[in-house]
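lol so apparently i was supposed to do this last week
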Amino acid sequence: MDSTLQDGFGRSVDYLRMSVTDRCDFRCVYCMAEDMTFLPRQQVLRLDELYRLAALFVGNGVRKIRLTGGEPLVRKGIVSLCERIAALPGLQELVMTSNGSQLVKMAQPLADAGVRRLNISLDSLDPMRFCAITRNGDLAQVLAGISAAAAAGFARIKLNTVVMQGRNADEVLDLVDYAVNRGLDISFIEEMPLGEVGRSRGESYCSSDWVRERIAQRYSLFDSAEQSGGPARYVRLQGFPESRIGFISPHSHNFCASCNRVRLTVEGRLLLCLGHEHSIDLRALLRRYPETDQPLLSAIHAALLRKPQRHEFSSSGEVQVLRFMNATGG
Ligand code: SAM
Ligand code: SF4
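anyway here it is w/ iron/sulfur cluster bound
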């Protein structure tokens, strides 16, 4: 069988995002409901199952894996999982998205385990607001985590900010200052309608163009053709050569044409597109065929042919996908 993965539109899939847990120590307003029920343990992939799938994908052309969640750093055994995945021959980059709350103690072990880059979520620099957005997060702990990560030797660190009118849109410039003064990248994300989170998302929608104009009030921006293998479009700022400013704009700039990725949910469902419910159950095959990967591989190839051409998010704020981001692997 072909050892690369291709979808029905000729797009090569070489990037896998794996959710390693649906659990999290935060309850961000855009990601979760306040009162979440998490999955029973037997429905969640074991570490050996996560590793087996990672190895299968890398053996078939995947070059980059992002571990995410939920909060990946609350999963027990995560550092040794990273070490094993990072050592897979053919994998070019193991990266992770984290909320930063555990990084004071975990940043160095992760870097030592072979995680090359980190994305860290940071939605506000105001402790009260940060606590309100995350529904219980401690800003000081996260900022200390970012400093620990900066000292740990990652190839790159990027902050992620979901911009919401009425909550943090007025902090865009402060967040840019924070990032560029430390040589970090920062991406601004338009909120996506994943899961019913108990409020209308349309009211807080904030477009990337609005954010960009805001940044241009303080900095000289110039476009950059750089790609990080993700959906962000980048600009650079005059005088700050180390940092890039990214815009992830699922509503206003559809990025589907260059989509090279699939997602694995924490239950072992392979999701072909963040904006659609289609998925296939790899956990059942993993457990039915402990000795051979061929049935899994055939199912993955067949599923890729059904990867949709594009998502259909609109900025109305309507829930269009019932899954929450934490189970999906954002
Ligand atoms: N817990 C980690 C974190 O917060 O970075 C990793 C998982 S989180 C689901 C991954 C990313 O998804 C975060 O940057 C978060 O801001 C983003 N995210 C979550 N829900 C979102 C939504 N509805 N729209 C846009 N981005 C979202
Ligand atoms: Fe947790 Fe990340 Fe979701 Fe916030 S965005 S609730 S930190 S999984």
